Amino acid sequence: MKKYFLLLVLIVISGCFRKKADRFVSLNETKFHIKEYGKGQPTVIFENGMGSGMDTWKSIPDSIAKATSIFSYDRAGTGKSDIASQDRTIPNMVKELREVLAKENIGPPYIFVAHSMGSYVGRYYAIHFPDEISALLLIDPSPDRLYDSYTEQEYKEFKEFGDQSFANSKPGERLEWENYLENRQFINKKKIPDHIPLVIVSATQWDFYEYHSQIMNNNTYSKHLKETGSHDIHQDKPELIIKLIHELIERVK
Q: Mean pLDDT throughout 89-95?
C-alpha cells in the first residue's frame, strides 16, 4: 500500500513541474502568452499578422503538432501578452522572440510560418540568424516595396486609412500599426539566404504577387504560389497551409 502511495505522490509532483502547453512567460517584466506542444524537430513557429493573436491560426497548429513541435505566441501588446516598454521595431520583436525561446529551452532548427506583417519578423530572423531557420513559409506577406512606389499623396491616404482602421484597437495593436511603415526599413531589399527553402503564398484579394516575387530567393525548393482568396488565405484554405508546412517538414528532416 505504501509503495502505491509513494508512486501516486511522484506522479502528482511530476505533473506539478511539467510545463503547461498554454502558458505565460515573463521577460523583462512583460508577460508573453505562448503555446508549445507537439514533439520532435524542427519546431514550427507561427508568427501572427499585425495586431493579431495566435488564435488567427485556428486549427492549423493542432494539425501540425501531430508531426512535430509547434510554438505559437502573442507578440507584446497583442492577444493576451502585455505591452512591452521597448519600441515596436522589428529588431526588438525578434529579440523578444529569441529571448522567450531561449528561456523556454526551445532551440533550433525552426520552420517559420508568418502571415502579413509577421513576415517582417520572419524575414528579419532568417536574414540575421540564418543558421537557426530551416525553412520559411510567408502567407500573403506585407509588400514592403509597394510603399516605396507610393506618391506623397498615396502614402498620406494609406496612413490615414490605417489610423482610422486601428483607432478603436487595443493600444498594443495600434502600436504595431504606428510602426508598420517605418519597420519595412529593416527588411526592405534584403535577400533571404539561398540555403533556406522559401515558400510564398500570394492571395488574390489585394494581388501583391508582383511585390512578393521580389522577395524570392534562389533555393531549388523555393516556390511562389498564387491562390484565390482573401488576405487571410490561411483561414480560407487551411488545408493548403497544412500541406505546405508538412512538405517543408519532410524537406528539412
A: 98
Residue type, 158: F
CATH of 19-252 among 3.30.565.10, 3.40.50.80, 3.40.50.1820, 3.40.50.300: 3.40.50.1820
Distance (Å, rounded) from C-alpha 83 to C-alpha 57?
22
- Provide the H-helix boundaries in the chain: 2-17, 60-64, 90-103, 118-128, 144-148, 152-165, 171-183, 209-213, 233-236, 238-252
**How far is it, in rounded angstroms, from Cα 17 to Cα 58?**
28
Please name the helix (run of DSSP H) or strand (run of DSSP E) that holds residue 208, with its range, or none: none
Beta-carbon contacts of 5 under 8 Å, excluding residues fewer than 6 positions away, are none
Q: Quick one: three-class SS letters along 132-189?
A: HEEEEEEECCCCHHHHHCCCHHHHHHHHHHHHHHCCCCCHHHHHHHHHHHHHHHHCCC
pLDDT averaged over the chain?
94
The reported pTM is 0.92
Quote the CA–CA distance of 52 and 176 in Å, as a whole number.
Answer: 10
**What does the pLDDT look like over 156-208, one tens digit per residue?**
999 999 999 999 999 999 999 999 999 999 999 999 999 999 999 999 999 99
Report yes or no: 34 and 4 within 8 Å, Cβ to Cβ: no
Give me the long-range contacts of 7-12 (CB less than 8 A, separation at least 24).
none
